[in-house]
Amino acid sequence: MSELFQAVLDSEEKSDLRSFVSELRQQDKKYLLRNDILNVYSEYCSKYQKSETFCTTSDLGKLIYYTQEIIQEDSNFCFIIRSKIASQEIYWLTSDLSVEPMTVQELLDLRDRLVNKFQPNEGDLLELDFGPFYDYTPVIRDPKNIGKGVQFLNRYLSSKIFQDSKQLLESLLNFLRLHQYNGVQLLVNDRIQSQQQLSQQVKKAITFVSDRPNEEPYEDFRFQLQTMGFEPGWGNTAQRVRDTLNILDELIDSPDPQTLEAFISRVPMIFRIVLVSAHGWFGQEGVLGRPDTGGQVVYVLDQAKSLEKQLQEDALLAGLEKLNVQPKVIILTRLIPNSDGTLCNQRLEKVHGTENAWILRVPLREFNPNMTQNWISRFEFWPYLETYAIDSERELLAEFQGRPDLIVGNYTDGNLVAFLLARRMKVTQCNVAHALEKSKYLFSNLYWQDLEDKYHFSLQFTADLIAMNAANFVISSTYQEIVGTTDSVGQYESYKCFTMPELYHVVNGIELFSPKFNVVPPGVNENYYFPYSQTQDRVESDRQRLAETLFTLEDPIQIFGKLDDPSKRPLFSMARLDRIKNLTGLAECYGKSQELQEHCNLILVAGKLRVEESGDNEERDEIIRLYQIIDEYNLHGKIRWLGVRLSKTDSGEIYRVIADHQGIFVQPALFEAFGLTILEAMVSGIPTFATQFGGPLEIIQDKVNGFYINPTNLEETATKIVDFVTKCEQNPNYWGEISQRAIDRVYSTYTWKIHTTKLLSLARIYGFWNFTSKENREDLLRYIEALFYLIYKPRAQQLLEQHKYR
Ligand code: UDP
Ligand code: LCN
């Protein structure tokens, strides 16, 4: 039994537990989440006049602190206790205070009973368990190392080389033999036939290059190396070749994790990358701010540019200049024939500022043209993905003149397409979630049937399970995206065990301790987003035009509101108008605080101004709500709402203009997976107040380079901002100090250079790992395929039938 439960039951606190349980019985809710539990406990503490110390430090207090959920059935309770990150224990507490452990299956049955969907006949429901497939792969032990998969894998692989050097080095040799560029053999040729020969020849080659001047170009001694068994790819100069060979020599003689990583990171094996971002309006202009089109597009576009640059640098350093290597990055997205003035109906578009990065748009197969000719919400996109992947494979093979070396999926749909493509083409698959919807919508799995018409979560969650398990590696923007924090469950963690009543039970949906998980945060595009003080890079006419747009321009088509006093400090936010972004919450917080209104104007860049212009349910609801709040709190004269679609250049300059006015950026989302606007605001030098729920908790260090807010507590949020403003008014340097620290934070931790170097290093290591262990994955992939064909496909087909009549 849980030590905490035991401690409570064995002490005087047993009677406190009894009284607390009786409080629980009074609740209307039968399913309490952590916040509800803490509220009941705090009420209990005040009702029974418990001391502060008792409430927090008693065993009962600790038990409550770690309890994530309590479910009541009759007069009994199920407690889900998460005293450690990424692990949960389940207990059944009966009315006479006896405690029994519960199995995951019992918990899922209980949840089903709660919503009257219990299947009484054993065996009626499919049970999904991915656990056994991870039994033979190494797993991380300490939860704090979750997300550092590659470090772990390097340690594991190098120790295997150490223990079983013959087999792994043989494997390494075969791996090195594999690499070619446009039919030209790289690294080693047929002269090296065994690992002993490899070892001998490496030493010989080191002696040979050591006698040459450091800077001598590789081409000058290429043929001598060739006769020793070495082809291009070791370096561009004698020094670089020597270094690479030395690293390999060390790896063969005394393998250690750093040497393995250093060596594999130099292997020229990635030249062609596909980034799949299937659903949205993917373009370079005029697409951001639409309901499904936000950070993912920004992320993928910037990542493509940065990857291409890094691949070029790597190819040069590897000595491949004469092979005329042209790394290519393709962003694969859907072609939208009715493209609303964007280029989304164009098959191929070059990514600005690159030599060989492209947006390749593949249309959906013609079905009901009302659907396939237009934008389709991400919640409705599922039926088209399989044929889309098949068509895309053909187009990609033609564009690359061969197979890609890495496929990166984005969001559930892109990850599913990445899985289908990677499976067909036998390529390394990487997943990026951006935001997993399951944790965004409360109880979305338990009540999936009620939500199905609108959201089709049965397809989305099945696709998530498929893609995250199939991926060779997953990159997440934060640690908590994987396993949350001490008091909140991670996004991936929420797939560990859950019920989809009457569809399936997931008893082990993902191995969170798998080394496949790696935290690699994105950066910010420094050409567009840079500090306001970098005046030499700013265009004065843009500054003036955007200042006017923000504060004074009268343009009722795109701008709502006229400010009584445009010189007040701007409280600024920019986001898509969806419910979770909670701009309406920010407006309400501002509306309720007279003090905030006295000090600041509220300026929002958000979606559209008119319901009739929106095709999205949530956006429409938010528009209506925002107008209601403005009227209810009479915010006329204090608020500006810009329903504009900004170009990249303008969106960068807008932040800087806000910073010129010593403004504040607020990100009030109810949950934010990462939050690129936070990076953009911070690098521009705006002190930023961001939600404490999600990624911002890792981006910002509270009160050092920004501030956390709890967007559900409007009064506290307003007070925090007012306190900051007051402090700035008292101390003229304060705003500048926070501003500078925000800038420093981004440059030290969130750049695309850091991101792509890490990503490419991961791709190489996982490529090697995949090569050495591939036979172990086939059973997992077969299981996943069964899930795809037996669950996903029939449901997608049903949805397609519904689309016939749209
Ligand atoms: N954005 C924009 N115009 C808008 C709303 C958002 O240009 O009206 C951009 C914003 O600058 C940022 C991205 O869209 O680059 C939003 O990314 P974030 O990660 O903050 O949120 P998401 O929309 O992906 O949930
Ligand atoms: C999706 C989100 O919801 C944001 O939190 C991220 O910043 C964005 O994607 C980019 O990853």
TrEMBL record:
Its EC number is 2.4.1.13. GO terms for molecular function: sucrose synthase activity. Pfam families: Glycos_transf_1 (PF00534), GT-B_Sucrose_synth (PF00862), SUS_EPBD (PF24862), SUS_N (PF24861). Residues 567-737 form the Glycosyl transferase family domain. Residues 148-236 form the Sucrose synthase EPBD domain. It catalyses: an NDP-alpha-D-glucose + D-fructose = a ribonucleoside 5'-diphosphate + sucrose + H(+). The keyword Glycosyltransferase applies. It comes from the Bacteria. Gene3D superfamilies: 1.20.120.1230, 3.10.450.330, Glycogen Phosphorylase B. GO terms for biological process: sucrose metabolic process. The keyword Glycosyltransferase applies. Residues 11-111 form the Sucrose synthase N-terminal domain. Transmembrane segments: none annotated. Keywords: Glycosyltransferase, Transferase. Residues 259-551 form the Sucrose synthase first GT-B domain. Belongs to the glycosyltransferase 1 family. PANTHER family: PTHR45839, SUCROSE SYNTHASE 1. This is Sucrose synthase.
